[in-house]
Amino acid sequence: MTSMKCGNCSAIYPATDSICPSCMRPPRGASFLAKPIVKIVAVSLVVVLLMLWFFVGSKENGIATDVSDARVVSDAFSLVRTRLKDPDSAIFGHTTRHLVSDGKNVACGTVNSKNGFGGYSGEKKFVYMYEQHSVSFDDGSPDFSTLWRLFCR
User: Fold this and answer.
1) Which domain holds residue 133?
2) DSSP state for residue 11 in the 8-state scheme
3) pTM of the prediction?
4) Which among 27, 83, 86, 116 is least surrounded, fewest beta carbons within 10 Å?
5) Phi and psi at residue 105, to the nearest 5°
6) Greater pLDDT, 108 or 43
7) How far apart are CA 110 and CA 100, in angstroms?
8) Is there a contact between 11 and 28 (Cβ–Cβ < 8 Å)?
9) Are residues 45 and 109 in the same domain?
10) What is the C-alpha separation between 23 and 70, in angstroms, rounded?
11) Are 127 and 78 within one domain?
12) What are phi and psi of 139, to 5 degrees?
């Protein structure tokens, strides 16, 4: 018959006992059930987190929903600059990012830049659509007015 020394009170008792008869405490360290339970809980937690990551993910219906405001606005500035006569003269006004009803990213803002004569032409509104990588400028058309009303208000 093997015996154990209690880690709490130093008493010696049979190894078949689950608690020390002197101090009535279980042996120091995890009991024989604690280790498997901890493993089961840890594995279950990892499985649940992996399932959440897999099913929720960062894309929903192929649309990037995890894109930051700074990324959308920065991309808008880059594309707007490519469409100007003097890209280095661009002065951007208030520009905001909007998530529209179908989950797409849109940036709305204003830009002032130099025209072909070297003078600033005044602020022009623009609407940038991130997923389509396209920009529309305010040219006075009803199409732009509709875009602005739908996405930028």
Assistant:
1) 63-151
2) -
3) 0.56
4) 116
5) -95, 130
6) 108
7) 19
8) no
9) no
10) 63
11) yes
12) -110, 10
